[in-house]
Amino acid sequence: MNSERKNRETGGGTTPRHLLILRTSAMGDVAMLPHAVRALKEACPQMKVTVATRPLFRPFFAGLDVDFLDVDTKGSEHSLAGMWRLAHKAREMGVDAVADVHGVMRSEAFRLSMWLHGIPVAYIRKERAAKKAFIRRGGRGCSPLKHTVVRYVDVLRRLGLAVENPSPAVKRMRNNPMGEKHGTWVGFAPFSAQKGKTYPEDLSRELVGLLSERFERVFVHSGGGQEQAFAQEMEQKYGNVTALFGKVKLEGEMDVISHLDCVVSMDSLVMHLAALVATPCVSVWGATHPDLGFLGWGGDADNVLQSELACRPCSVFGAKPCRYGDYRCMRAVTPRQILQKVEQVVGR
């Protein structure tokens, strides 16, 4: 199967005029893609670039001068046949090269259709075996693996494009949906889709209290449901705490983050949003590890907080249940440690 896939990858010929880059999930992985796209646009400013992704993710690519091909993975593009139809639509748009930076069965169906019509394709090398080996060894004696953003850029290089690794994002003016800023603003994103990457609720309560005492304004990032309930409880308890969910959409949340002096995030989306808008981030790691290639692009390694427990990292993506049942890796990083690191970052 690997040799068959290799034979379906072509590149290195004529420079594409209209490149399509495909990535539809996960949210944090898509949020890392704009860094690679920015490097591509700097190297090939005349090239037309279309990003094939979910409509929700368009705000990630603001200011990059790209077009979009919407992918409905829950509807019309849920099936492989749907991806073949999407490939037909891409060809009608004039796409003459494909960079598949997702590397799943659905994206493989898309690029196979394009390849059969003579269109050059290249795809991501995820090196799953190396990641699993890193986990087996607990990271001990292992060199840091290639960053996901660099893997994205490598796909572009396999199409013959001379693209350098991107520099970190730079701060640019964005709208401030939360009114005039006074004093120091910090954000706190304790949640993740995986329990192995979620800060415990009792420690989160303690940290919000510490942050609210120390800084002029604190924003709690969350999703809906129980996450929203926690954020709203904190908002009601502390006069300078704001629960963001329901007040702003994704673009607005990025606007808010751009005005923060620092944000505290787990290994989750907000860390990558902070990287996109050049806001310092204190990242807390439990079941996962930054050396697996998922640290926010351009993030300062000195702002990473993690324990030296022998049982971690135990998972590439944080989905594996804790062998002890208590997720001690997340509890090992205390609210006081996080507060001290934030104080260092903002210069207090």
Describe this structure in words.
The strands form two sheets. A six-stranded parallel beta sheet has the order 8-7-6-9-10-11, sandwiched between helices. It is globular. By secondary structure, the protein is α/β, with parallel strands linked by helices. It is built from twelve helices and eleven strands. The longest helix has 17 residues, at 27-43.
Average pLDDT, to the nearest integer? 96
Could you tell me the radius of gyration in angstroms?
21 Å
The gross shape turns out to be: globular
User: Roughly how much helix do the residues carry, as a percent range?
Assistant: 25-40%
Low-confidence stretches: 1-6
- Biggest sheet record: 6 strands, parallel
Strand proportion, as a percent range, falls in: 5-15%
Number of strands: 11
Q: What order do the SSEs take from the amino end to the carboxyl end, as H and E? A: HEHEEHEHEHHEHEHEHEHEEHH
Query: Span between N and C termini?
Result: 56 Å
Our count of helices gives 12
* Spatial sequence of strands, sheet with the most strands: 8-7-6-9-10-11
Please state the structural category.
Answer: alpha/beta
What is the secondary structure topology, with strand pairs?
Elements: H1 2-7, E1 18-22, H2 27-43, E2 48-53, E3 67-70, H3 80-92, E4 97-100, H4 105-116, E5 121-123, H5 128-136, H6 148-157, E6 185-189, H7 201-214, E7 217-220, H8 226-237, E8 241-243, H9 250-258, E9 262-266, H10 269-276, E10 281-285, E11 304-306, H11 328-331, H12 335-346
Parallel strand pairs: 1-2, 1-4, 2-3, 4-5, 6-7, 6-9, 7-8, 9-10, 10-11
Helix pairs in contact: 2-6, 2-10, 3-4, 7-12
